[in-house]
Amino acid sequence: MNLHYRINRLTLSDFRNYSSLRIETSRPLVALTGQNGAGKTNVLEALSLLVPGRGLRGSAFNVIARLNGSGSWGVAADIETPEDEYKIGTSFEGDPTSEDGGNTGRNAMVDGEVQRSSGVLTNYLKMLWLTPAMDRLFAGPASDRRRFFDRLVAAFDAHHGARVSAFEKLMRERNFLLQDPRCDYTWLTSIERQMSEHAIAIASARNAAATTLQRHFAARAEASPFPWGILQLVGDIEQLSAHIPAVQAEEEYARILYDSRNVDRAQQRTLKGPHRTDFTVTHGPKNAPAELCSTGEQKALLIGLILAQARSVKELVGAAPILLLDEVAAHLDAFRRRGLFEALTELGVQAWMTGTDENLFSEAGVQSALYHVEHGSIVEVK
Ligand SMILES: Nc1ncnc2c1ncn2[C@@H]1O[C@H](COP(=O)(O)OP(=O)(O)O)[C@@H](O)[C@H]1O
Ligand SMILES: [Mg+2]
183 with 261: CB under 8 angstroms? Predict the structure, then answer.
């Protein structure tokens, strides 16, 4: 049995600036170097599409298809998981004749068989990422923090992502019904019931993940160059779910929805629910809210948080998730870079990292692979 997740081979076709690309590696640390615009982040984005969702850029699928290509794209990988080895893949069939490029869902394949939806990918790989766009995670909108946190929860609980989507779909239906002058109240009540069942399941999965994450994030490791911190989930439904039995919490949220119909109708949205949950982070050593810390301190704290997430996943599922670290090394001095490589090695994760300069990875150790990206192709340097 493997005690890790690994991607040993990655192939792309008509993906962003790559017409075709193949990378084979069995190393735990993989560094991609090259100039700005070479296509480093594109490779990480392809990897991020090996789990459900829209990938680390959140792009529409038709935008990902290579310009002047067929309009379709594909990503495939040979992977090792704690269960077994698999060949997984995902592809998008574009339709250049339709106005939006045929921007519908993407397909998933496992061991040569087409799957019903890309949601099944959640059963194969666990993956977390850190990108420059997340530098404003602490100071930016709550929705970004929620998505970040839900990705961790999904790594614990394979059904979480599907539940969040189902809740949001029902909520849109409720908002729509509330605006309908001939609103069918029986139907509305039924939707609110279903919403509250999903809401409590979502909240209780978040609470469980938060408990583990809080413990790892607050652990003070003297040698670590990344600060510890305190994370607090802030959400009405999470509070409910933490304090009363699930059945009762479901009743309670259904009642809240019922009571807020008029307000929600006037506001044209649902004001209370797990879609409003946020979290706050305190920089431990400074005892200050994360959003008030310097850019550098926030970056270090974010890395501390990602490492705590990886440790949490490892504790709960027995193997550390794959990490995608986009342009992370460049922000760190030599001491912190070494600290990062050591932490990754100790965790036993596979980490895919990018940076413009090869020297950034000179201390990544013998267990690392180094690739140079240029003009839509990749060569192994080490
Ligand atoms: N759909 C696409 N088709 C072809 N090229 C694309 C597409 N989307 C982005 N690109 C190109 O990919 C490059 C950016 O790649 P990226 O991975 O972000 O670079 P970096 O190495 O700096 O991370 C840019 O040159 C951009 O024009
Ligand atoms: Mg980039």
Answer: no
